[in-house]
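Bug report (template v2)

What were you trying to do?
Predict the complex of my protein with magnesium ion.

What happened?
Run completed; filing so the output is reviewed.

Input:
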Amino acid sequence: MRFRQTLIPTLRDDPSDAETASHRFMVRAGLIRQLASGIYTYLPLGFRVLRNVERIVREEMEKAGAVELLLPALHPAELWQESGRWDVYGDELMRLKDRNDRPFALGATHEEAITALVRDEVKSYKKLPLTLYQIQTKFRDERRPRYGLLRGREFIMKDAYSFDASQEGLDRSYTRMYDAYSAIFRRCGLSFRAIEADSGAIGGTDTHEFMALADIGEDTIVHCAHCHYAANLELAECTDNGNAHTDKATMTDDESVRQGTPSASGSRQIVETPDVKTIAQLTRFLGIGADRIVKSIALLADGLPVVALVRGDRELNETKVRRLLGATTTELMTEQHIAEKLGSVPGYIGPVGLPDHVAVIADEEIRGMRQVTVGANASDRHLVGVDPERDFRVSHYGDLRTASPGDRCARCGGELRFDKGIEVGHVFKLGTKYSEAMRATYLDDTGKSRPYIMGCYGIGVSRLLSAIVEQHHDEAGIVWPTEITPYRVHLIVVQNKDPVQKELAESLYDGLRKTGCEVLYDDRDDRPGAKFADADLLGLPLRVTVGKRASEGIVECKRRNESESFELEAERLPDFVRNL
Ligand SMILES: O=C(C[C@@H]1CCCCN1)Cn1cnc2cc(Cl)c(F)cc2c1=O
Ligand SMILES: [Mg+2]
């Protein structure tokens, strides 16, 4: 492809709204341009990379036995009403009316559409298992689109859906997709981890996220240095790290006297703590460690009042609260809720003396604690010398805290490591959640009608481009992995006006293309320096320069991921490139 013929509007300076390397370089290298917030054009170079990624996805989906189709992006509201999700998703689901004022949604995902199709077309167990997939534009009206293609409002997803007649069948479909994802991300040159994840509103049982390792990633990956345990921080398991507080052994009498609390078996007392609301203030005011305090967080779980307890130096994990209670949503109580439902005051909430209809749940670490300090459910007051089992009831104990550095692996006791990641894939075992909701059934071998057992599997294809650039760039620009680079060779002629250089460059361009090599030929009249800078920015694997030694039939070559260049006889180039 000749530079003059295509459209690669490179920029010398960083765009002001780009906060991450991939966003900066993808705009500067002329791969994407923003049409509106979270909505992007793929320019010719960006589109070639997109098609290369899609080619890899299709090849691996094919190997995994999945069949490609294309579902509509425009869904009648009735479909989403059938599954009950029309009202579950709020502003994020983009909705519109057609000319007859009938409500539609722009597809944010396609469980409903695919289940309706299979319900109509697949009636017998003989047609199962079946895994269908598409590569389709999705629409989600994100509150804060950011980082270019990383979080867009219109984006490209490969979404696959498997239909099985048994749990074992789903396990097989899931494993095949899981393995296909590993192959896809490996071929895209990504360093990634598959981690245990939370299935969120979509429901289902097992689910794994595929995380591309990147410091700007929004997710935190917890993984063990010794065993294979790896999970999203939102549900990574915690243990008591073998150092559970068994207070009888730790609190000496003189220590308890100093802290103004009665000795180990003392009764609780109210302490005036004027305007002491946070854990930090409380530790200073009482001169005690945060691990001697029990923090009470007031929540509404599916609208019901809950007070969750964690040690003062821990963070409550709301995903774990939802899982413990089997709740779909949790939200922090407002000051008004705290007054009305708990009869308490923000900053002074505690588990002692709460109304009976309030469920109190506690992290496992609370179980062994004694003589702790808690809010007194009254302004400017705390209770000291409180014993969990003696002074308040806990309806459920569970692993409710967020893992933190220094915690040990819940599986093997090894050291936990924390990394940031970009979610590029997510696979779910859905079970019958959608097929039951939409009465999508097949007749089994006894003639009995049963709901399909489903799985769903997503890859953020457009997001993948950004994740790859995040992992493959240097200070000068992008460094494309060979399987997805938009072109293989970046051919530069130093002096366009020099007939010898021009002639050799033209013949090389033709020669390379004849061997099927994809060449981007910079035949512009620009200064050599500008051409070299663009070559670094665009990141093609091999730069070939036709310059002053053209008269001797010699060209200069340089790999993008190497600093040294080397010389080569021009006629050997086609062979050399073939073996790149
Ligand atoms: O998309 C999934 C699950 C899987 C992921 C793999 C491919 C198939 N879907 C989860 N999810 C996320 N955000 C959403 C946003 C909106 Cl506005 C919506 F209406 C629905 C969803 C939604 O369902
Ligand atoms: Mg996810």
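What did the reviewer find?
The chain is about 25% helix and 30% strand. The chain has three domains: 3-237+418-469, 253-398, 489-579.
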